Amino acid sequence: MIKFFLMVNKQGQTRLSRYYEHVEIHKRTMLEAEVIKNCLSRSKDQCSFIEYKDFKLVYRQYAALFVVVGINETENEMAVYELIHNFVEVLDKYFSRVVSETLNLLQSIYSLSKL
Amino acid sequence: MRKERMPAPIRLRELIRTIRTARTQAEEREMIQKECAAIRSSFREEDNTYRCRNVAKLLYMHMLGYPAHFGQLECLKLIASQKFTDKRIGYLGAMLLLDERQDVHLLMTNCIKNDLNHSTQYVQGLALCTLGCMGSSEMCRDLAGEVEKLLKTSNSYLRKKAALCAVHVIRKVPELMEMFLPATKNLLNEKNHGVLHTSVVLLTEMCERSPDMLAHFRKLVPQLVRILKNLIMSGYSPEHDVSGISDPFLQVRILRLLRILGRNDDDSSEAMNDILAQVATNTETSKNVGNAILYETVLTIMDIKSESGLRVLAINILGRFLLNNDKNIRYVALTSLLKTVQTDHNAVQRHRSTIVDCLKDLDVSIKRRAMELSFALVNGNNVRGMMKELLYFLDSCEPEFKADCASGIFLAAEKYAPSKRWHIDTIMRVLTTAGSYVRDDAVPNLIQLITNSVEMHAYTVQRLYKAILGDYSQQPLVQVASWCIGEYGDLLVSGQCEEEEPIQVTEDEVLDILESVLISNMSASVTRGYALTAIMKLSTRFTCTVNRIKKVVSIYGSSIDVELQQRAVEYNALFKKYDHMRPALLERMPVMEKATTNGPTEIVQTNGETEPAVLETKPPPTGLQPTSQANDLLDLLGGNDITPVIPTAPTSKPASAGGELLDLLGDLNLTGSPTPAPAPQISQPPFLLDGLSSQPLFNDIAAGIPSITAYSKNGLKIDFTFERSNTNPSVTVITIQASNSTELDMTDFVFQAAVPKTFQLQLLSPSSSVIPAFNSGTITQVIKVLNPQKPSEIGFQDWEKTDLRA
C-alpha cells in the first residue's frame, strides 16, 4: 500500500505532498525533512529503494526534483518505480514541460487521485 | 458607514510565486500569516465569488505544513454550491483537510449522496473519489448502496471509480462485503483497462479479507489467465503501452491476484503454470518495466504450489537479476532470494558466489541484503570459505552492520565449526576487528565456549594475551581476555602452547597488563571487575608475585567504584583471614553446561548467592559459577541487591570440613545465651560466614526449651523449635523452619549440621528444597540429636541458592 507521495526539490522544499494515511501536520514536516535527507545523501549509482523505519522509500530524481513514494512491504517496488515515471510522464504531457517552477499544484493532486 | 471593500484576493499562482521568493523560513512564515489573515477576513465576509480561490490557497499552505483547519467549513460550503469549479475545490479540500476525526465531516454525507446521483458524471466521479478517500464508517454505511448501484452502471468512467470506492468501503466496514458480491460478476468482462484494473484491485481486497470469498473467486482463475494472455500476446496498443509492454500495471495486478488465489490450492496453481512460464520467458528484460513484471512473476511462482521446473526457472531469473548492472534489480533479487532460501536452499546455493560478491558493493541496502542472505547460506560444506568472506566484510563494512555481522558470525561458527581451533581463531578474529561492536551477551557465551575446549586453553590464552598487549580499548575483547588470563595464567607463563610458538611471558608482565586495564580510563566498570578478579585468581596460579597481587588488591579496597571496592575488600579478607581457603576457592573452573542460547543469552543457570557454602559435604549441583562470571551476569541482569559471591570450590573433603568448621567455630564467640547471636561481624559485608550460625544449643534438661531464631539475615530466617523425644529422653528433636522474605525464591536450600564426635545426628529429609519468596511458605526439617553426655555445643550451617531467574 502506498503510504505517501512526495515531490521535493533539492533544497528540501516540498512541492507536492499527498498522504494516504492520517499523519499529524507537524509530523509530516519532520517526515519530509528526514526523507529528503536520506534521498539527497545517495549517489547516482545507488539503489533507488531505501529502507526507512518500518516501510520502504522508492525515489526517483528528475533534474532538481525528487519524487519519493513511501510503500509498505506488500508492494512491488519496481512497479512503484515505474508508476513514478508514469506519473511524471502524465504531468509532462498535460503541462508540456515538467519544471518545478510551473508545476500546477491542484492539477497534480487531481491526477494523483485518479491514478 | 461604508464597508471598506477588500481588494480581490490574489490567485493561487501568485501566492506560490510570492512564497517562493522568500529567502528564509521566517520570511515565508510572515507571508503566509499575512495571507491567512486576509483569507480569514474574506471568509467572514461570506464572499461566494472568491471562496474557491481562497480555499485553494489555504490548501497550498496546508501542504507546506501550516494549520488550515478554519477552512473546513468553507469546503463544505463549496461542496454544496452548484458550480463545478467550486465543487471541485471543495471536494479536494475535503479530501485533504477533513477526516473522520473531525466532527464536521458528517455534514458532507448528504451532499455526497446528492452528488452521487447527479446528472453529470464528473460530479459523480468527484463524489466517489472523495468518499473513497476519506469516508468514515458511518458515511460508508449510509452510502454503500449508492456505490453499489454505480458499480453496475455501464459508464466505464464511473465504474472504475466506484470499484475503488468499494475497496475503501470494504476496508472501513468489512461486513458490507457481501453487498458487492453480485456486482462483481461481470466486472472482469470489461474491455476497458481502467475498469479491469480497479476490478482486480477490488477482487484482491475481497480475497485478502475473507477466505469464503477466496474460495468463491477461485473459479475466476481461467478468466484471469485469459486476460493476461491477451495482454502479452496483443500487439502494440498505444493506449496502454509503457516502454513496449502493454499495460504492465494491470499485468502486475493480475499476477498478484493469481498469487493470492493459487496459494495452497493445487488446482488453481495447476491452471496457472503455463501462463506463468509464458510470462517468465516472453517478457522483455531490457527495460525496467519488463523486470518489474518478472519480479512479480517470480514472487507468484514462489508462493503458489508450482511444479519444481517452474521454481527452478524462477530462481534462475533471480540469478540473472543478480548479474544485472542495475542496482535496483540486484536489490530486488537479493530480497526475493532471502524469502526463498528456506524452501529452495539448494537452488539458491548455486548463486552463492554472486551473492558473496554483492557484499563488496558500495550500496548500503544491497550490502545489508547480501549479508543476511550469506548468513542464511552458510552450511557445513562452505563454512570455511564463507567465513573468510564474512570476516573480510566485517573488517570493511560500515559500523551499523558490525554488530549484526559479528553476532551472525558467532552463530554460524557455533553451528558449523569444523574444528575447535578454527572456531577459536574465528572468534579471536572477530574480537580483534570488531571488538567494540560485539554484543554484551556474547561475552559469557564465548567464555563458556573457551572453557569447554579444554585442549585449546593454552593456545587461547596466549592469543588473547597477545591481542590485548597492543590495544586494550575494546571492552568485550578485554573482558574475555582478562577472564582467560585469570583462569589459565599458569599455562601462559609456563609456555606450554602446542598449537603455535609459545611466547615467553613473565608473571610480572601479565600482571602489568592486567593492572593497566584496571587503571585505564577506557575500561568500563564491568571490565575492571573482570580484571580484578583475574588478578586475584592468579594469586594461586602464580608463585613469585603473590605480594604484588596482595598490594594491588588492597589498593582497590578504597576505590570509588563500589563494585570494585567490594570485590577488593573481600579478596583482601581472603588473603588475611582465610588464606587457607584461597587455593580451594580459586581453583580452575569446571566445564560448564551448555545453555540454550537464543538471542539475548539466557543466563546459564542459577548463580551462587550471598551465602555460598564454603564447605559442602554433598557433591555440588552444576551451576557454581566463578565470581567474575556471576558478578558480571548479575550486572547484565540489571543488578541485584544481592552481594556478589565468591568462587566456590567444587569439592572438598569432608574430613577437613569438620575440622575447619570447628576452627571457625572456635573463632566465634559462643555464648550460652539463647538469644540469637548474629553471624560474627567482620568489617566487610558478610559473605562467607553468613551461613554459619554460632548458635550454641543446650541440651537442657529443662523440659521446655524456648524456640529460638537461629539465624535471620538477608531475608532468610530460620527458627528452631525443640522438644524431647518421647521414646528416648536423650534425644532432642529440633524442628527447623526456614522462611524467605526477599523477592526471589531460594532454591536448593540445604541444611547441614556438624556435631562433636560424641553426638549422633540424624537429619531427616526436608519438606522441600525451595523456599518461596515473600514469606509465602516455609521449609521444615526435623533433626534428631542424641547426646548421651553433658550439654555441649553444636554448630549449624545452612546453604542455599537464590534462583536469579525468578
From TrEMBL, chain A:
One of its GO terms (cellular component) is cytoplasm. InterPro entries: AP_complex_ssu, AP_mu_sigma_su, Longin-like_dom_sf. It is a peripheral membrane protein. The keyword Membrane applies. It is found in: Endomembrane system. Pfam families: Clat_adaptor_s (PF01217). Keywords: Membrane, Protein transport, Transport. The keyword Ribonucleoprotein does not apply. Residues 1-106 form the AP complex mu/sigma subunit domain. One of its GO terms (biological process) is intracellular protein transport. Component of the adaptor protein complex 4 (AP-4). Adaptor protein complexes are vesicle coat components involved both in vesicle formation and cargo selection. They control the vesicular transport of proteins in different trafficking pathways. AP-4 forms a non clathrin-associated coat on vesicles departing the trans-Golgi network (TGN) and may be involved in the targeting of proteins from the trans-Golgi network (TGN) to the endosomal-lysosomal system. Adaptor protein complex 4 (AP-4) is a heterotetramer composed of two large adaptins (epsilon-type subunit AP4E1 and beta-type subunit AP4B1), a medium adaptin (mu-type subunit AP4M1) and a small adaptin (sigma-type AP4S1). Belongs to the adaptor complexes small subunit family. This is AP complex subunit sigma. It comes from Apteryx owenii.
From TrEMBL, chain B:
Belongs to the adaptor complexes large subunit family. It is a peripheral membrane protein. Residues 703-806 form the GAE domain. Keywords: Cytoplasmic vesicle, Golgi apparatus, Membrane, Protein transport, Transport. It comes from Apteryx owenii (Little spotted kiwi). Its main location: membrane. This is AP-1 complex subunit gamma. It comes from the Eukaryota. InterPro entries: Adaptor_Complx_Large_Subunit (IPR050840), AP1_complex_gsu (IPR017107), ARM-like (IPR011989), ARM-type_fold (IPR016024), Clathrin/coatomer_adapt-like_N (IPR002553), Clathrin_a/b/g-adaptin_app_Ig (IPR008152), Clathrin_app_Ig-like_sf (IPR013041), GAE_dom (IPR008153).
